[in-house]
Amino acid sequence: xxxxxxxxxxxxxxxxxxxxxxxxxxxxxxxxxxxxxxxxxxxxxxxxxxxxxxxxxxxxxxxxxxxxxxxxxxxxxxxxxxxxxxxxxxxxxxxxxxxxxxxxxxxxxxxxxxxxxxxxxxxxxxxxxxxxxxxxxxxxxxxxxxxxxxxxxxxxxxxxxxxxxxxxxxxxxxxxxxxxxxxxxxxxxxxxxxxxxxxxxxxxxxxxxxxxxxxxxxxxxxxxxxxxxxxxxxxxxxxxxxxxxxxxxxxxxxxxxxxxxxxxxxxxxxxxxxxxxxxxxxxxxxxxxxxxxxxxxxxx
Amino acid sequence: xxxxxxxxxxxxxxxxxxxxxxxxxxxxxxxxxxxxxxxxxxxxxxxxxxxxxxxxxxxxxxxxxxxxxxxxxxxxxxxxxxxxxxxxxxxxxxxxxxxxxxxxxxxxxxxxxxxxxxxxxxxxxxxxxxxxxxxxxxxxxxxxxxxxxxxxxxxxxxxxxxxxxxxxxxxxxxxxxxxxxxxxxxxxxxxxxxxxxxxxxxxxxxxxxxxxxxxxxxxxxxxxxxxxxxxxxxxxxxxxxxxxxxxxxxxxxxxxxxxxxxxxxxxxxxxxxxxxxxxxxxxxxxxxxxxxxxxxxxxxxxxxxxxxxxxxxxxxxxxxxxxxxxxxxxxxxxxxxxxxxxxxxxxxxxxxxxxxxxxxxxxxxxxxxxxxxxxxxxxxxxxxxxxxxxxxxxxxxxxxxxxxxxxxxx
Lengths: 300, 410
Fold this sequence. Notes:
Number of helices of chain B: 17
Shape of chain A: flat
Distance between the termini of chain B: 75 Å
Order of helices and strands of chain B: HEHEHEHHHEEEEHHHHHEHEEEHHHEHH
Distance between the termini of chain A: 42 Å
Shape of chain B: globular
Structural class of chain B: alpha/beta
Number of domains of chain B: 2
Strand order of the largest sheet of chain B: 2-1-3-11-6
Mean pLDDT of chain A: 87
Radius of gyration of chain A: 24 Å
Low-confidence stretches of chain B: 15-25
Oligomer: heterodimer
CATH architecture of the domain at 72-252 in chain A: Orthogonal Bundle
Number of strands of chain A: 0
Radius of gyration of chain B: 24 Å
Helix content of chain B: 40-55%
């Protein structure tokens, strides 16, 4: 008895309890909803049988129905544009800004801190702001572009099917830029100065120093930033209702907004669950790629 | 230790007080009412709920304001978890989702015995939207429809005498009135990708001989081609695809569009904002003397079937209905029944507009009722948007919508 007690307060038992509590927490708050979602995607669900478990079994019907929707491939294409466009934009501009702020000039760190304002703001506020900036006839962006002589007519960012997904992507790049910059700045600050000094003595130019020192040293940071970027981009929801509502004609609809539309506009909860299951599978594949690509660093 | 004892006593005393309060008021029944009234401006449901609550009749009314976008979701969620309100007010096409599943209380017999609620005096459209399977599940709260607002000053300047009566005239006049160099469009409307898009497009389908079950009509195809042509030529703003009716009509009020398709909810703001002479005309038809149609908007009131106090809830409903004569003078809403006289406001433009909308209401047709209306509606506004953005031809877009609707209806 005493041995059990002492093991609980200090020993294997304590470890087990700690692990157990964490697992229980994960299971209750992530596992159960996930399993529930999987179950729903194989059932026929509407609001009137949502509070019971005995719903008609639908097999793969929901999956077949989703894939055969006329807008399915359009949504996939848009999701790809939004995810890769956002990540690429956030990363490239974030990296450029991070390097820029590594230069020591007056107020560098203060200004860098101010960039975080975009990250702190709620998505719906950012969405409303960009909604006004991107407005067609009276939008700020159009006025600027016209003033600079870049365009003649009016760019209908929110209503032109060729532009709408890019409109949301631009807003999302702005929203995530500061977060990328901050993480990358931390990575940059971790590279020892003397490496650069040594390289400089050996006659390496700026580009060579960037590709042979900065990039390899930043490998794990870059991996983390890109993985987090993927997760945040796939979670990004607020901008869609605030800017384009997925329109016009689904030309800016993405998987996460589509899932919401199925569940809360069309009240077909099973199909909403089905779309989110498809997203989960995609994120799972992406995480496996990420874990594999950074595996040797974890070991080393 | 002494301290805790005092605290314990105080706690006990407080507990006794709290326990005593409901005992005193045990006779009172509380009825909860949910509606969107009061979210943007003072409306009938919030006002009447407060008045009824003030009365000393043993029934309290607890009123909750919800946003337009949330009310169906909130009600569904509350119903599923057993916390539904007693009375809820829903947009008329959403009503069948609940009544068809027995989520609203069948009030056919209560209404038959009531001195206040008489189903026979209601307009056909609103009455249909609260009926399901021959039974009555609620009452219309107020109704609205759409017509064409036009800028009389611009019409006079261009030498056009009368507002458009056919869609051909609508296009002709819009093209005459558009001044792209001054940022003035010929007309504005809402082809937004939500219920508002269907609200404005379905009447076109209906007046060309179709309905929500038969959308691919020749007239609908023609109309889509016409509107697409106007967007391409800059006569309509491309933003009609993303603007709601309220924002779209805002451009008319500021003088940036010569005509606007919208409804009577605009009148009060237009009286304030528009510094030009304006009027309203009926929604155009395809040919002179052809069949008319218009959208039927407005909210309904129903008692949820889960209520514990059906009789008291019905009394609250009766009170709301008994105040119908105040809807127009106080809130600018049109009643859903024919036996309520609408007093003139004394504002010339408002009264003239009202007369047109009352005439238009005779042609207003409901959306549905169908328990899966939201899916049917999405098929319709998706088709409209696909055709107007040029992603599909009108025929392809409407055939696709028809195919989707057929799978829902069958």
